[in-house]
Amino acid sequence: MRRSAVITARAAATFEPVGRSVAVARAFVRDTLQGWGYADVVDDAVVLTSELVTNAVIHAGTAADVQCLRYESAVRVEVADHYPEREVPLQGRGRPFRDSDNEGGRGLLLCAALASRWGVEYTPSGKHVWFQLDLPERPAGTHAAGPPLPTAELPVADERVRVAVVQVDRDGAITRWNEDATELFGHPAAEVLGKSLTDLTAWPQTPGTGIGLAEALQLSRWEGTYGLRAADGRVLSVYGSHLRVRDTGGEPSTVCLLVRAEERAVLQTPPRGPSAADTGPGRRGRGADAFEGFIGSPAPDDLDGLLQRTVERARDMLDGDAAYLLLATDDETELEVRASTGLPSARQRFARVPVEAGTGRYGSARMPAVHEDLTAVPGAVPLLSGTGMRSVVTVPLKVEGRLTGSLGVAAEAPGRFSNQEALRLQFAADRIALAVESARLTELERLRRGSLSFLVEASDLLAGTLERDQTLALMAQMTVPTLASWCAVYTIAEQSEPELAFVLHEDEDRIDGIKALLSQVRPPEPDPTPGARMWTAPSDAAHSSALRASLRSLGVGSSTGGRPASAPGIALATAAAVGGETVVLPLVARNRVIGMLTLGKPTDERFRQEILELAEDLSRRAALALDNARLYSERTAISQALQRSLLPPELPHVPGVEVEVVYRAAGEGNEVGGDFYDLFPIRDGCWGFAIGDVCGTGPEAAAVTGLARHALRLLAREGFGGPAVLERLNAAILDEGARSRFLTLLYGELWPQQDGSAVLRMVCAGHPLPLRLRPDGTVEPAADPQPLLGVLEDLELAEQTVTLDPGDVLLCVTDGVTERREGSRMLGDDGLADVLAACTGLTAGAVASRIQRAVERFASDAPSDDMAILAMRLPSPPPSR
Predict the structure, then answer these.
(1) Which of 349, 484, 606, 818 is most buried (most C-beta within 10 Å)?
(2) Which of 672, 677, 669, 674 is nearest to 642 (CA)?
(3) Rounded distance between C-alpha atoms, residue 579 and residue 487, angstroms
């Protein structure tokens, strides 16, 4: 596509050169393409955008301009930076790629691998990298009618087939709900009208596969299988045929016809009939023609639909009672069940069996085989154990001599199949094998790209928090329902047993039941071996609990009768929720098992191997994020404990004096900074008080804070006066050498008197002067300034005595109050005095609070300096009667 092609839509945004811009850019591209209905290419576009924006904002260090362009058959994304001298990685002509550990240019390599077209364009002011993703061709509208079929070949349906008709508006809200919909799902029309159809949908969320319901409703026509939640909480598998229409006013809406999944033939698009050329003499046999004609209608990438039609047609072609299809793993050692019909529920889906199940011809899936009576050879076909099937014919699916799968048809009667039927089935399997393999490879590629997008998003989310509980919650939310139906996270502290830390289920009403069940089950062993391992304890315990509850409800084995009648229903629901396959993945970080990630499926469901591999990748990232959160929490706790030790534990009671303190340390996570205060008893009738400010903020300033506060208490209680206390503290600070800091300090002794007054002896060493507020509103300094500490070795200080009368307030603050700024304005000493003058008649607590509010409101931004406020007030005597 040339640049001159018609652009039908455009969206652009600019992102600053900061790390979080990468995640914001991914969200911008994802939302834009999904809004345009381009869900098919969203994953690739998000991955490429992530790499290119990272190159711009992280490696180049400039802002990134991202532009999305929509064409009729493609989408183009351009990412521009402002640093055109960046090197472009080259290959060929004797120039190898750069070191694989070097991330520079990796986005361009991904462009070459994923994009339909891509390029780099330079301008005088910068450069931009663009990539284009072509849209897959999806036919829209009606399909051709199918050929007439004999009655014997018609699909079987219930005598009463109900077709639910549901109509939704352009926003996905339900506007029509017929009686069959109520009969099928149990929801009365009055309860669902106006609600979103997605609220009732339990869509199978597998990364990179299928199409979301919101996207399906936007297509002109769509057919497929999904799950709807019935009124009783069960998930019913339905087959839907969606047709998008518009009314006479031009408003679009979607009409959905829904039937039970086993009745899909009622709505399924009929196949095209065979041509005359295919039915002439010398052409393929009738069975193979009909077989291939029935399967021919699925989309090329609809693997599940193709496989399901294959097994249904194979069963009908040989007049069997059941059929199944297995796909081979990459190493051809195992077969995975991917589709079945006529077997009990879907319990076999994703189950694995070995290719070589035994010795001889019938023990290998690589050769056709006919078993006339399975009861004569128990276990010959483990997949059919307990199903009531007696005879079976199996044939391999091969492409270029390589085993890609196995197709089997079974019957309840013995001796049902002959070698001739095996040949017919093999001939049909040969015809469909290439189409199945092509669809499988397409699905694997989509899974790979979807997994890459999923891991990019997961890594970004996990890296965005250092909170342990939030990390646990993210781990569970990323796996449910994307990878599993429920999830439990166990954590392991050093030298302790695994502890259940978090539980999540896609149905919130079942979380408590699963949590109670797991609390009764011994946790899995913390095995550091990589990979997922099976864990049967939850399902075994759930089934045992359900059985006991059922017996109690019947009055068997229990005479207590104290449990509510709903207990059996709750136990059965819990058993259904955790009764499927459960796997455990170790969370290993820094060569130590720090926890376990447990994933589970509901009854009769299994995990597919690709999902387990994706979960293993996620568990490695989650383990490191969880361990980082643990280390951060431990160091934060240590830091907070050490910081709290630098402040007095609580204010002592001083008879006849109201005392209030407000303290705020600057910096995130800091409880103590360079400012400090103290109030402590020295001897009977005498209390010491101090408020100081160490030069700077953070841990270095806090270290001098601890030295000053503890030295003041020790020296004062040894009987030294104020000047002697500060002179010795000055010497101790200078002894710290390079670690010493300047220190401003107001230190004094408080002597309450019997008449309600108080005598203060103070030394103000370079600190903002204390202010005295009289009952008439007069504000005046209560001390004179003297040299600060930590500068001069020979320091001479003098003590000043002040008497506070009843009703007086003494306010002491640090420069975080007086130097509060808003642009060129500063609160200053005069501004503080004005605020204090308005505090006449207030208590000490009210005075401190008003000063704090005045400081915070003086500027719009948060305070950037430590702040300490110490207010002392002598209560006024009660009025005489």
Answers:
(1) 484
(2) 672
(3) 13
Considering only residues 159 and 314, tell me which one the structure prediction assigns the higher pLDDT: 314
Closest of 68, 81, 177 to residue 127, by C-alpha: 81
Type of residue found at 831: G
Q: Looking at residue 264, what is its pLDDT?
A: 76
C-alpha angle 679-681-682 in degrees, rounded to nearest 5:
115
Write phi, then psi, for 252 (nearest 5 degrees): -80, 150
Task: Look up residue 221 and give its two tokens.
Answer: 């026509």
- Which tens digit of pLDDT belongs to each residue from 718-732? 989 999 999 999 988
* Residue 707 structure tokens: 């030295």
Tokens of 330: 């990459």
CA 368 to chain centre: 47
Task: Please give the Cα distance from 324 to 307 (Å, whole number).
Answer: 9
Q: Six-digit token pair at 878?
A: 């009660």
* Residue 74 backbone zone (phi > 0: left; psi -120 to 50: alpha; other: beta): beta
| Residues ≥6 apart with Cβ < 8 Å to 589 | 623, 624, 626, 627
CA distance 747 to 764: 7
CA atoms within 13 A on the CB side of 708: 35
- Point out which residues pair with 491 in neighbouring strands: 499, 595
pLDDT of res. 73: 84
Structure-token pair, residue 625: 């994020």
H or E element: which one contains 447?
helix 419-463
Structure tokens at 594: 């720090």
How many whole angstroms separate alpha carbon 836 and alpha carbon 818? Answer: 12
Residue type, 256: C
CA distance linking residue 406 with residue 382, whole number of Å: 14
- Which tens digits make up the pLDDT trace of 373-398? 888 877 778 788 878 889 999 999 99
If you search the block for the tokens 């193709």, which residue do you land on? Answer: 306
DSSP letters along 63-124, please? -EEEEEEE-SSEEEEEEEES-TTPPPP--BTTBPPPPTT--TTHHHHHHHHH-SEEEEEEET
152-159, Cβ contacts within 8 angstroms, sequence gap of 24 or more: 153/290, 153/316, 155/265, 155/312, 155/316, 157/263, 157/265, 157/266, 158/260, 158/263
Buried b (16+ CB within 10 A) or exposed e, 301-331: bbbbbbbbbbbbbbbbbbebbbbbbbbbeee
Q: What is the 3-state secondary structure (H, E, C) of 806-853?
A: CCCEEEEECHHHHCCEECCEECHHHHHHHHHHCCCCCCHHHHHHHHHH
Q: Which residue type, as a one-letter code, is found at position 380?
A: A
Q: Count CB neighbours of 853 within 10 A.
A: 11
Please work out, in degrees rounded to the nearest 5, the angle formed at the alpha carbon of residue 173 by the alpha carbons of 172 and 175.
125
Q: How confident is the model at residue 100 (pLDDT cuts 50, 70, 90)?
A: very low
Q: To 5 degrees, how large is the angle CA 310–CA 202–CA 161?
A: 60
Are the C-beta atoms of residues 875 and 812 closer than 8 Å to each other? Answer: no
Check residue 755 and report its DSSP letter: T
Preceding amide of 396 cis, omega within 30 = no
The rounded percent of the chain whose pLDDT value lies above 70 is 81
Whole-structure pTM value:
0.53
Phi and psi (nearest 5°) for 7? Answer: -90, 120
Please name the residue ranges forming H helices in 680-791: 699-717, 722-734
Q: Copy the structure tokens of residue 204.
A: 């199978």
Residue 369, class by beta-carbon neighbours within 10 Å (0-12 exposed, 13-18 middle, 19+ buried)? buried
* Dihedral sign computed on CA atoms, order 88, 91, 95, 100: positive
